[in-house]
Amino acid sequence: MFLExxxxxxxxxxxxxxxxTMEQKRILMAKTGLDxxxxxxxxxxxxxxxxxxxxxxxxxxxxxxxxxACVDExxxxxxxxxxxxxxxxxxxxxxxxKERQSVPIFAGGTITPASARELNALGVEVYPPxxxxxxxxxxxxxxxxxxxx
Amino acid sequence: MNQDISDxxxxxxKDDRAxxxxxxxxxxxxxxxxxxxxxxxxxxxxxxxxxxxxGPPGAGKSSLINALxxxxxxxxxxxxxxxxxxxxxxxxxxxxGDRVRMNSYNHSEKLFVRSMGSRGNLGGLARSTVSAVSxxxxxxxxxxxxxxxxIGQIELEIAEVADITxxxxxxxxxxxxxxxxxxxTESGDIYVINKSDRPGVHKTRIExxxxxxLIPHRSRVPQIVETIxxxxxxxxxxxxxIAESLDSKNTDLKQIRELRQQxxxxxxxxxxxxxxxxxxxxxSLWKNIVSQNIExxxxxxxxxxxxxxxxxxxxxxx
Lengths: 149, 318
Known about the structure:
The complex is a heterodimer of chains A (149) and B (318). Chain A is 42% helix and 19% strand. With 149 residues, chain A is α/β, with parallel strands linked by helices. Chain A has one domain: Rossmann fold (3-Layer(aba) Sandwich). The longest helix of chain A is centred in the middle third of the chain and has 13 residues, at 87-99. The relative contact order of chain A is 0.17. With 318 residues, chain B is of the alpha/beta class. Chain B has two domains: 45-252, P-loop containing nucleotide triphosphate hydrolases (Rossmann fold, 3-Layer(aba) Sandwich), CATH 3.40.50.300; 262-316, no CATH class. Chain B has helices spanning 3-13, 17-29, 31-41, 61-72, 98-101, 129-138, 158-161, 176-180, 201-213, 235-250, 253-280, 284-287, 297-316; strands at 49-54, 79-85, 94-96, 111-117, 143-147, 164-169, 190-194, 223-227. In chain B, helix 8 (176-180) links the parallel strand 6 (164-169) and strand 7. The two termini of chain B are 16 Å apart. At the A-B interface, helix 1, helix 2, strand 2 and helix 3 of A face helix 1, helix 2, helix 3, strand 3 and strand 4 of B. Strand 2 (54-60) of chain A pairs parallel with strand 3 of chain B.
């Protein structure tokens, strides 16, 4: 095959030690609730951006759409904004756990204590209203270490 | 090239989306690997059409793409979209928000949307955007739409990369003098006045028309299309114009392929020179430029010759 031929004749002479590498972590932010407002996810996305992350916003999405974006965008972490009901979030979590096991998930928004316990049990960290942006950025730093290439 | 990347390439070429997505990240994170990957893709490149969408921030580029996707699907099996947004020069972070407007077809297997931060590149694209095009092309995505970040007047790298460049403006955009400045009004193949329900559309069209009619180096005067992306107004007409333009400009895929091949090698060579320069400037010869005693123009030329000799030796020894 062409690839092997190139390798054989030493057509890949680039010095791999050169400084053109920078691992940039990527986070997907999706809205899953009925609640249409953007303030929460936008402020969080902004804080993550200022912490050096590439934050991909997809707005209101279904579980399937969130999985699709998670795969295509090759993200290191998924943030779910929840507005009351957690049904859509649960579907997204289930889909991601099935197809992209190594991608961690955290959630924020209006989440009842019972729902928070349910999400925690699935391994999803929950940041309810009142959480500090510093804590959220720290969580992102910690969670994005987990992913295997 | 290590085994992991070869495996990913094999998988991506067999239509594994996750492998394709992972390769896109690798290319973004490491320009050395990107160059290697692109070189190995060369035999499978040159099968896709590339449409570039550019224009100032907020002109409606993402919304237009969202509206175009279902119509383009009638002519092309699958569509890949590469959407570039600016990276912060302070934190290197980025808020990539183009997907928010492209939310109508998130679920379709036939659409692959990839968001990219510009990561310090100044031409309206990310450095790895072109590499991503090569990859999508090789993996059989026949239509590739690139959305640039919101541009000012001259960030028009897109015109080099795309087969067709669509410039999106709005009513009230500038005046006669803006329309006649170099840059944005000489690089498009098609001009869209989006949000055409807003006042000033007629004046904008006339000023654009007058300016475009004077472009000396074009055989065809670029067409102007009015749209309202949010209500799908004028979108079918716009796609028709794009498709027609693709037909008339580059029906010949062979020609596109040759052009891409040429561009790829130009890029790889300039990348190698850049790399060599990066290493060279750390050497004592280059560090000592400041302390050289230059008393006449001949001294300056001698020094330059020495530096060029140093670079060419380094390039040969790679």
